[in-house]
Amino acid sequence: MTTLPAGTGKQLLRLATAGSVDDGKSTLIGRLLLDAKLILQDTLDALHRNGTGGAPDLASITDGLRAEREQGITIDVAYRYFTTPRRSFIIADTPGHERYTRNMVTGASTAQLAVILIDARHGMIEQSRRHACLSGLLGIRHMVAAVNKMDLVDWSEDRFRTIESDFAGLAEQLGVQDARAFPISALNGDNVVERGEADWYDGPPLLEHLEAVDVASDRGSGPVRLPVQWVIRPEDGARGERRYAGQLAGGTLRPGDPVVVLPAGSRTTVTAVQTFDGPLESAAPPDSVTVGLAHDLDVGRGDLLCSPDDLPASGRRIEATLCWMAESPLRAGEHVALKHTTRTVRAAVESIDALLDVTSLHDGPPPDELVLNDIARITLRTAAPVAADPYADNRITGAFILIDEDSNDTVAAGMVRRVRPGGREPEHSPGVTWHDSGLEREHRWNSLGTRGATVWLTGLPASGKSTIAAQLERILVEDGHPAYFLDGDNLRHGLSGDLAFSPADRTENIRRVAHVARLIADAGMVAIASLVSPAHHDRALARELHEAAGLPFLEVYVDTPVEVAEKRDPKGLYARARAGKLEDFTGVSAPYEVPEHPDVTIHTATEDVSASAERLRQVLEQLWFPR
Amino acid sequence: MDAPDHLRALESEAVHVFREVAAELERPVLLFSGGKDSIVLLRLAEKAFRPGRFPFPVLHVDTGHNFPEVLEYRDRRVAEIGERLIVAKVEDSIAAGRAREEWDASKPGSSRNRLQTVTLLDAIEHGRFDAAFGGARRDEERARAKERIFSFRDDFGQWDPRAQRPEVWNIYNGRIRRGEHVRVFPLSNWTELDVWHYIRQEGLELPSIYFAHEREVFEHDGMLYAVSEYVIPSSGPFTESVRYRTVGDMTITGAVRSGATIVDDVISEIAATRVTERGETRADDRTSEAAMEDRKRQGYF
Ligand SMILES: Nc1nc2c(ncn2[C@@H]2O[C@H](COP(=O)(O)OP(=O)(O)O)[C@@H](O)[C@H]2O)c(=O)[nH]1
């Protein structure tokens, strides 16, 4: 009987179990719960009702839904809880059937340790390799082989040692340093909770190992990662700073730490780390906290606070390992939503690069499509930049799910391998090579005492873009910083004089302006482009050009309701469009695609022009001269 | 750095769940019964959103047969934290012809328990809620072991065990269609003992019926029921020192004999107990092993 009121001062260990049907996984879990005295009387009664010949049916403890009971198989992930005087355990029980890779991936995704069931009579069969490989792929760094049914092989030491060394070999291949095998009989209880048969075995029983294994010593190491989940604003009328709430995903965060906010790239300092219970001196994963920031920046859900000296790669092209979980297949070119930490962006599958053999993790030739339970390497392109770590470095900021935008289903689990800037190389005329002046950009900028960037203002006609742009140009120049205002209307007088307002012409116009802006920024000036630029893909192109060239690019959404813009209408354009005299007029007869992840949003209804321009100047300063 | 205590890890996970729901869904609501699990939920919501306000109201489904101690506690606690309380009454559902009375005072063990489902679903539809936080835990019952933290309900409030989404890492997918809603269980990974330890750690006050008190009870079908205006005792009433492990309707919630007057006593009693919470104190759950699953399909929490 449990004597100690368990529950405090103990660590939590999340473990996943995997095994083929009939390896004895359910029996093992039942045995752990039974011998750790955690099965309660009514549950035990039910076990006896189901069991044969008076012995409890241990396997039925972990059995759940009725339909499955009727079919006699478990088909999903079931969670079990038990506690010993030393630890609290959460078991994700995942079935071993070949078809259920998806469930194993789900169960393993949160586990720190995997218990792989191996039937001593069969040894390391393909299925066992699969289970170990999937656990390794999901980033589990501690593995246990429970070599079960040793009673059926007369506790043969040879048999066990063979399996033990096969398992150790595979673990090494997977880069898993902590791997151990245990000879057990789940049915009889040997070496599960108590020692048992096999005088040749001098190791601890399985449970003792699970209670002792060190899974937490690296907590708080590595660079800080804090995805912003929610912004807590002081109550109406109350004073106080905004707090940014989130769960630590990496590193140790302390008040006074400098952080960079991605994807904007602005830099600030953490003023406080707090919870409901008061201020903290430090926080590390998995703590849920709130933080205060020194500067009044445009920080919100989906932003990632990071250590300045170790930033994750940010970009729009993601190479990843994907587990496809949907019934319908996935092909290159398809569109999905991608949720990474607290940020959701649109994405398209650029290519399927290889199909993984899950019994070796080796690449196989790329298939035309992925079907349920396939694991593959793929490349995704996202509509907005994503700042992510490789999954091998961080299991939170390296993970994502894909969502089908029609059915809303979660259709895939993804693990980041690499993030690339995602900009395509600028197109160029055949035969022309780029003339490199030989001056390094940094050298040029430093000598001139200047920095380059492009500020791209998008919004409805008459939303106030040009007014803000002109003001920004003025304050920068007065400050001694070269800046040049590229006005959409003015450019159409010369450079783009041959273009009208059809979607194709708009795209071409933006392409030209984007290239001009890039050259100006490269030269060390701030190019301030003010264009309606209503289409996502056009603005994305402008961003890509800059990212590919390693130049800062700020997408600024001038958010003015159409009624307000129409009322201003300094050039009388809305009136003419309403009267049908202007075709393809954005806001009236042509669509405006609102930016999904602008770097800065300006509400002209509530912020005046000089305040907006000043805010933009500060964002630029932060980008160039991080404090 | 040392690993956090497991309660702190569970707390952080629950707070993360609360914030994800608030950010991704438009109109959440927190289901509050006055029971210990929902009291813990309320505290976790404070942890997630203070010093701001909760971005949702609190909803109680009142069967009309609640323990008066629990109603008194409910009103006081919600007032203390200064959030908005909505009470949905089963009696109103009956009066409106949405549900037919199933309780009969002359039949101990009969109750309005099943009718709560109707009232709850009506309240969700009426409030246009798209997410409802509940205090259910996976350790409560076998059918719950596979429940997701985000559990999807179609526009009839029904749960389809096959249509649930995979939940990987801590990335939740809160997308739903109009009319659908999601039940969210931030305490999924907590056990009954965890809840009690947390109550002790946080110094949370509970309704007095959770602690040993003298009560007039009668025995029916192996359970101890309270003598109340809602039931005619089927055997001779007697006075006993009892406490409750869960709060439900007075008509069907069984008391356990106990001398535990403080949280520590309760924890020791539970640690030593040999019967799960539901088997011991909820008559309706014992009827069939699959009872829970059937009710889940219909839309019970
Ligand atoms: N002899 C023997 N039989 C076992 C042992 N462990 C499990 N079994 C039996 O193997 C069968 C399958 O076990 P079960 O736990 O249902 O396997 P699962 O499909 O992996 O969950 C059952 O008949 C068990 O009684 C063991 O250690 N020794």
Write the layout of secondary structure elements.
The complex is a heterodimer of chains A (627) and B (301).
Chain A: E1 11-18, H1 25-35, H2 41-50, H3 66-71, E2 78-83, E3 87-93, H4 101-109, E4 113-119, H5 126-137, E5 142-148, H6 157-173, E6 178-183, H7 206-212, E7 225-227, E8 230-232, E9 243-247, E10 258-262, E11 266-275, E12 278-279, E13 288-293, E14 304-306, E15 313-324, E16 330-331, E17 335-340, E18 343-357, E19 362-364, E20 369-370, E21 375-388, E22 399-403, E23 410-420, H8 441-448, E24 453-458, H9 465-478, E25 483-487, H10 488-491, H11 503-523, E26 526-530, H12 536-548, E27 553-559, H13 562-568, H14 573-578, E28 600-603, H15 609-624
Helix pairs in contact in A: 9-15, 11-12
Chain B: H1 6-24, E1 28-31, H2 36-49, E2 58-62, H3 68-81, E3 85-89, H4 90-95, H5 115-126, E4 131-133, E5 150-153, E6 181-184, H6 192-202, E7 213-220, E8 223-226, E9 238-243, E10 256-257, H7 263-272, H8 277-281, H9 283-286, H10 291-298
Parallel strand pairs in B: 1-2, 1-4, 2-3, 4-6
Antiparallel strand pairs in B: 5-6, 7-8, 7-9, 9-10
Helix pairs in contact in B: 1-2, 6-7
Q: What do the pLDDT scores of chain B average to?
A: 86
**Are any ligands bound, and if so which?**
guanosine-5'-diphosphate
Termini separation of chain B? 39 Å
Number of helices of chain B: 10
What are the secondary-structure elements of chain B, in order, as H or E?
HEHEHEHHEEEHEEEEHHHH
The low-pLDDT segments of chain B are 282-301
Number of strands of chain A: 28
Strand content of chain A: 25-35%
Mean pLDDT of chain A: 86
Sheet/helix structural class of chain A: alpha/beta
Helix content percent band of chain B: 25-40%
Number of strands of chain B: 10
Q: Give the distance, in angstroms, between the N- and C-terminal Cα atoms of chain A.
A: 59 Å
Query: What Rg of chain A is obtained from the alpha carbons, in whole angstroms?
Result: 30 Å
State the share of residues found in helices of chain A, binned by percent. Answer: 25-40%
Instruction: Name the shape of chain A in a single word.
Output: elongated
Runs of chain A with pLDDT <50, length 5+?
1-7, 423-427
Contiguous helical run count of chain A: 15
Q: What form of chain B results from the Cα inertia axes?
A: globular
How are the strands of the largest sheet of chain B arranged? 3-2-1-4-6-5
